[in-house]
Amino acid sequence: MENEEPNGPPAPRTVHLDARQVRTLAHPLRMRLLGALRMDGPATATALAEKLHTNTGATSYHLRQLAEVGLVAEDTERGGGRQRWWRAAHDISNFEPTDFDDDPDARAAVQWIQADQVRLLGEQAERWMAAEHYHSRAWRDAAGMSDVLLTLGPARLRALNEELWELLARYRDDAVPDEPEAKSVLVFLAAFPVLEEGR
Q1: 171-185: per-residue pLDDT in tens?
Q2: 9 pLDDT more than 70
Q3: Scanning 93, 115, 118, 170, which has its CA 20 to 30 A from the CA of 79?
Q4: Cβ-proximal residues to 178 (8 Å cutoff; 6+ apart), any chain
């Protein structure tokens, strides 16, 4: 069966973004809509508007824009009548930064998407730090941030990123549903060359 690993959970549905998709996705509400559908599962435009503190008209419009490029799809197994449910068409989006070297608009869209992701991840980290004292010692000791400085060429950096991704995928696929205190955990990986100021 497609997207199913032997003796395991279904493999995540992955899309390699094209120029049209990145240009469509480069919008703050569209990014949040796709993220909410991936994280929480199918929802109506009304439920998404409430969750994201916006109005249903805007949510419906931007869901249709995402659907036009195949990033979300109507969930025909849910709802009925005038109630439309939407789901993410994929679990993971990826691209190579060099995919858009010959398309300035797509390249600018990718830069905006990456900057917005960094901003959102920073907000998530700040939210945790502001509320961590309300959580158990086990969670406070397990969560955290760190960094390490390595000397690598591009080939070894790519190999490192691929190995880390394989490790994360293993933890995702081997999830223990009845693990005490289990929660959704955001893991953020970033690896890039250290540049001198202005270079």
Answers
A1: 888 877 778 888 888
A2: no
A3: 93
A4: none
Domains and CATH numbers, the chain: 14-141 (1.10.10.10)
Q: Is 107's pLDDT higher than 50? A: yes
Structure tokens, 148: 């390490």
What is the pairing mode between strands 14-16 and 92-94?
parallel
The whole-number pLDDT of residue 175 equals: 73
Whole-model pTM: value is: 0.81
At 189, the pLDDT band (50, 70, 90 cuts) reads: confident
- Residue 43 CA: distances (Å) to CA of 10, 27, 60, 186: 21, 20, 11, 21
Query: At residue 7, does pLDDT exceed 80?
Result: no
Inter-axis angle of helices 45-52 and 56-68, nearest 10:
110
Long-range contacts of 49-57 (CB under 8 A, 24+ apart): 54/29
Angstrom distance (rounded) from CA 150 to CA 51 = 40
